Amino acid sequence: MGAVGKEVRLKIYRNMVRLRFLDDKINEMIAGGIGITQHSTRGQEATPVAACAALEPQDYVMPYHRGWGWAIGKGMDPKILLAELIGKKTGCCGGKGGVHLADWNLRIMGRPGVQAAHVPIAAGVGLSIKFRKTRDVVLCFFGDGASNEGNVHEGMNLASVWKVPVIFICENNLYALFTPNIETTSVRDIADRAKGHGMPGVIVDGNDAVGVYQTVREAVQRARSGQGPTFIESKTYRMHGHTAMDRFHLGGYRPKEEVEEWERKDPVMRLRTRLLETKAASEKDLREIEARAKEEIEAAEKFAKESPYPTKEELSRDTYAE
Ligand SMILES: Cc1ncc(C[n+]2csc(CCOP(=O)(O)OP(=O)(O)O)c2C)c(N)n1
Ligand SMILES: [Mg+2]
C-alpha cells in the first residue's frame, strides 16, 4: 500500500485534533443555548480527515450530515464554518446555508438534508469530470443507514456504468439514529454490495487514520487513471449520540460495554500513540499542535459570535436564479 510520509501523518493528526476541539466547541455552544444541529464526529475523525488528505485541492467532496471532518479536511477555516452554522454573514454561504452549507471554492458541493440524495449527484459530478476531461475525482460520503436507500444503489450503478472517478465512502458506525444496523441491513459487510455494482468493495478500519489514507489514496489513483469508482466501507463508531439531543441517553439503545470498548479505540489517541512510537513527533511537538488547535477554535468562536447577521436585503440575495 506504500508508506505514508511524516508530513502527511502530522497534517492528518493536526486536522483530527482541530476537528475534535471544534466538535467539543459546538457541543459547548449548544449547551449554552445556541441552536445548531450537531451530528458529532467524536470517534469518527479518522475517516473524513484522512480521506480528504488523499485529495488535491481541485477534487470534489459530496459530504453528508455527520460532523465537519470533510470541511476541515478540505481546508475550510473553522471560523468561517462556525459563522455559517450560526447564520452569520461571514460564513461560507453568507449565513444562509446554516448546517446545510456548501463551499464551491473548496469544491464542497453542499451538505444534503435528505439522506443519500447526494449519491446520484456524485455520479453526475463524476460524469461532468469525464466530459471535461480533467483529472479530478469525487469523494462521496454517507452512513450505513443511508446505504440501504435506493439512491445509493442508483448512484453506484450509474457511476460504474459511466466508469466515472467517484470514491464512495460508507462510514459504518453500526447505528442509524437509535437502530443497530444488524436489524436493518442484509449484510454484515456493506462492502459486499459493491460487487453487485461492478466495482471493488474495500473494507478499512475506520479508526486507523493511516490505513484510511492509504486505502483512499489507492482508490483515488484508480479513479484518476480512468479505472472508475471504488466503494470503501469504513468500520467505525460514534462515541456520542446521534445528535447533541441524545448525548446523555447512550445507555438506552446501546450497551455501555460497547461504547467503552470503542472509546479504547479512539482514533485520535491511536494516531497520537503511533506518531510517538514511530518517532514522527515528540510529546512536545504534539502538545504544541494541540495547544494551537485549541487557540484556533477559541478564536473561531469569538469571530463567529462577533460577526454580524446578514441584512434584510442580503437575506434574499443568492436565493433565486435570475
Ligand atoms: C431520506 C431520509 N430519511 C430519514 C432522514 C432522517 N435521518 C437523518 S440522519 C438519519 C440516520 C442516518 O444514519 P446513517 O446513514 O447510518 O448515518 P449516521 O447518522 O449514523 O452517521 C436519519 C434516519 C433523512 N434525513 N432523510
Ligand atoms: Mg450510521
Q: If you consult CATH, what is the topology? A: Rossmann fold
**Biggest sheet, strands in spatial order?**
1-2-3-7-6
Percentage of β-strand residues: 5-15%
**SSE topology string:** HHEHHHEHEEEEHEHHHH
Global shape: globular
Features:
322 residues; alpha/beta; Rossmann fold; five-stranded parallel beta sheet; two-stranded antiparallel sheet; 11 helices; globular; binds thiamine diphosphate; binds magnesium ion
Q: Could you characterize the architecture of this molecule?
A:
- With 322 residues, the protein is an alpha/beta fold.
- The protein has one domain: 3-Layer(aba) Sandwich (Rossmann fold), CATH 3.40.50.970.
- It is built from 11 helices and 7 strands.
- The strands form 2 sheets. The chain has a 5-stranded parallel β-sheet, sandwiched between helices.
- β6, α7 and β7 form a beta-alpha-beta unit.
- α1 packs antiparallel against α9, α1 packs across α10 and α2 crosses α7.
- The longest helix is centred in the first third of the chain and has 26 residues.
- The model has no long low-confidence stretch (mean pLDDT 96).
- Thiamine diphosphate binds next to β4.
